[in-house]
């Protein structure tokens, strides 16, 4: 039986912090689906197709990782894909309380799916997509924060 995990997020845009979590999870599970979800609380810079394209380019070196999108509840998507787990990254203690609430609700919605937290690499513990967008908007150097394809896409969006 294949151990399939979902790594959900908005990925607007994907950062090296995201990729660190995805790469590490890909060593634990047979297959990872990186799922781009729409978050009504956020106004994305990149549309869903653009985010998926940037993710596909960024994870091309990982044979057991694919990219998809979904507009509904994560637990419905997990059930549809027959996933056994959700992988979430934690940057700091402040992330934990928020993630605990989400995980508790997800457990209520689908008790068959476990949530696994992977602590961020210390060098990415400060990194967020919002922060990347903010500094890229003012033409700051983001090459150490995002893959080259994302850096190019950010420059195009803000030019």
UniProtKB/TrEMBL annotation:
One of its GO terms (cellular component) is cytoplasm. One of its GO terms (biological process) is coenzyme A biosynthetic process. Its EC number is 2.7.7.3. InterPro entries: Cyt_trans-like, PPAT, Rossmann-like_a/b/a_fold. Its main location: cytoplasm. It comes from the Bacteria. It is found in: Cytoplasm. The record marks 18 as: Transition state stabilizer. Keywords: ATP-binding, Coenzyme A biosynthesis, Cytoplasm, Magnesium, Nucleotide-binding, Nucleotidyltransferase, Transferase. Substrate binds at residues 10, 42, 74, 88. It catalyses: (R)-4'-phosphopantetheine + ATP + H(+) = 3'-dephospho-CoA + diphosphate. Residues 6-134 form the Cytidyltransferase-like domain. Pathway: Cofactor biosynthesis; coenzyme A biosynthesis; CoA from (R)-pantothenate: step 4/5. The keyword Nucleotidyltransferase applies. One of its GO terms (molecular function) is ATP binding. Its cofactor is Mg(2+). Reversibly transfers an adenylyl group from ATP to 4'-phosphopantetheine, yielding dephospho-CoA (dPCoA) and pyrophosphate. Homohexamer. This is Phosphopantetheine adenylyltransferase. The lineage of its organism: Bacteria, Bacillati, Bacillota, Bacilli, Bacillales. The gene is coaD.
